[in-house]
Amino acid sequence: MPVRSAALVWATAVQVGVSPAQLAVASGLDPATFDDFLLRVPTESVWRIWELVETVAGVGSVPGLLAAEQADRVGLHVWDYLFTSRTSLADSLRTAMELRAVVTDPAVGWEVGEDGGLLTIRCTVAVEPEAVLASVEVFVLSVMLRRVRAASRQHLVPIRVRFTQPPGPGRARLVDEFGTGNIDFRAPHSEITFLDIGALPTGADPRLAAVLSHYAELNLAAARPAPSWNDKLRAAMRQSMVAGELDLNNVAHRLAVSARTLQRRLSEEGTTWRAEVAATRHQHAVDLLRDTELPVQSVAAKVGYQDARALRRAFQRWTGDTPDAFRRGMASGM
Fold first, then answer.
1. Dist. CA 71–CA 65, nearest whole Å
2. For residue 241, which of 326, 179, 302 has the smallest C-alpha distance?
3. Within 13 Å, how many C-alpha atoms sit on residue 25's CB side?
């Protein structure tokens, strides 16, 4: 999922009282990644944040509406502008739905349908766990309403809103948000329907529209996965090892945390400093044996052992083989 979507759900969680430490552990995300809008994070991480929002917000709250407000303040980058990328509102909506992967998991189904004067935005959200589905549906339809109003520069009111989930204690707030009491629950799909809005002009510049669509497509093509906390830990440990200073304090400094915080985070991740040092030594030794012609004694020194015998014992524990046999196997293509 795009990092901007994760950032706004994270901001919602903080708003309801979830601590950044809880968020980091539950999601495996580092908020520093939110600065790079080309990154994509695991969709499962975002669902875990939604779970925390649901748990902490408590009964009577409507987390989906809180997240929609965050989307207004934080913004969804180029996708927001796609709602005015075509001359008519209906065509702009179709463009935004076609390029939905800019803000959501591509597997999420969003579509625009017209039937006479009716225009319906339908959303199929495959969420696991299902406990957060109600909040996600409210969030998505609220964002659609806000973007339609902004694109048309009118306070449009839907004639019908539908959710797949059962009604909850926040129904009155939904009526206030959507401006209608015609809200159905346990429907086959979540959707929002308007009357006579498809032909509304958006004031789009056709040349600018082409640029926006192309830019959105380039963003999708350039997207890459965000590094996890474990990725950053391993990178910091590898850098420390190469510099000859692999110790807890040095790695904590590279990660911009205290040694105590690093120890606690390792425990939360179900690992230990000792285990991570061994894993780092193992990987670095494998890389050196495979990619260089350094003697085993030199490899041992570079990964933090005093002599080749210590490396041989450790390497045999890790792989069931000796460094020399491993290197011979790599040379023979085994």
1. 10
2. 302
3. 14
pLDDT at 26 > cutoff 90: no
Tokens of 8: 């706004």
Residue 310 scores a pLDDT above 80: yes
CA torsion angle 33 39 44 49 (round to 10): 40
Structure tokens at 65: 């509406």
Rounded distance between C-alpha atoms, residue 211 and residue 37, angstroms: 18
Q: Facing residues of 122 across strands?
A: 111, 191
Work out the number of other CB atoms within 10 angstroms of the CB of residue 208: 12
Specify whether the CB–CB gap between 162 and 182 falls below 8 A. Answer: no
183-184/224-225 β-pairing:
unpaired
Indicate the pTM of the whole model: 0.75
Radius of gyration of the chain (CA): 26
Pairs from 30-33 (Cβ < 8 Å, separation ≥ 24) = 30/226, 30/227, 30/228, 30/229, 30/232, 31/7, 33/3, 33/226, 33/227
Omega of the bond prior to 63 within 30 degrees of 0, cis?
Answer: no
pLDDT tens digits for range 208-227: 888 989 999 998 999 888 88
| b/e per residue 57-81 (b: at least 16 CB within 10 A) | beeebbbbbbbbbbbeebebbbbbb
So what's the pLDDT on residue 73? 61
> Residue 178 — pLDDT band, cuts 50, 70, 90?
very high
What's the token pair of residue 207? Answer: 């040349």
- Residue 163's φ and ψ, nearest 5 degrees, are -130, 150
Backbone dihedral angles phi then psi of residue 165, each to the nearest 5 degrees? -90, 160
Given this model, what pLDDT does residue 50 score? 92
Q: How far apart are CA 68 and CA 91, in angstroms?
A: 23
CA distance to 25, 68, 94, 241, 256, per residue, from 260 (Å): 15, 37, 51, 20, 12
